[in-house]
Amino acid sequence: MTDIKTPSVSNFDQETPVTAANNARKKSHFLLLAPGVFWMILFLVIPLAMMVYVSFWTQTTFAVNPTLTAKSWITFFSSETYVNALLRTGRLWLTVLVLTFVIGYPVALFVGQLVRSETLRTILLVTCVIPFWTSFLIRVLAWRPMLGKEGAVNILLQKFGLISTPIDVLLFTEFSVVIGLVQIYVVFMVGPIAFMLGRIDHSLLEAARDLGASTWTIFRKIIFPLSLPGVAVGAIFVSVMVLGEFATPAALSGRKVNLLGNIIVTQVGSLKWAFAAVVGVVLTIVMALVITALLRIVNLRKEL
After folding, report:
1. Which of 192, 221, 227, 241 gives the lowest tally of CB atoms within 10 Å of its CB?
2. Where are the bilayer-spanning segments (predicted)?
């Protein structure tokens, strides 16, 4: 009989070159991910967990102690002032989001589709961010002399005979806060949309024209659907920044319009850490819901 040679146990234990290469690749992937994971745990997961934990601490007038209680949460949701601040934050966020889209999309469409020169497109996008070369406070406070009762807008409207007396609702109202927020954050809507519009293959549009599609049909069926990932990214940028705003409402409303961000600043200034943590958790949940909803509208993993 012929002896059948079976592989020895040592042959199974021995790593083949392919297996060794795969293991080395996996180790390099883990090493590359490690700094990011460490950073996220240290500066995102742990602070969020601490914020939730502190929100259940017992807050007294001059101190806070780690005895767990839901008193701060009950105070927040039973107070008309804080619930109204939550609703006002949502209303202003939605208004600013819609306005930044309405104003930003045509600009992005011009830059991304109508400008064929890459150099000119870059110049136009850089022009959009030139205001960011100045201080944030200067850009916000510059609206005061523009919108004031004796500001530039009222002077021009009176000069052209459009109004007889100055309009006093332009400043220190929600209207002025919306104007300031839209002016500051509209560029964050323009950039991602222009980027996605610039990636559209022009041969696709030419083929649609050759088949008799009108300009409106091409926009509705091709351009707008392909630009939706940019709209989603821009909406996420604008939403996260507007929902966390506190400086612009304070400067342009004279502290008459309080958003959740303003309440956090006030509570931290009063050393009421537990209540500030409650508002912080509520704001984080609102942001998470908004981002989740936007990501469900557009599947960025598939589209990008």
Report:
1. 221
2. 30-56, 92-111, 123-142, 175-197, 218-243, 273-298
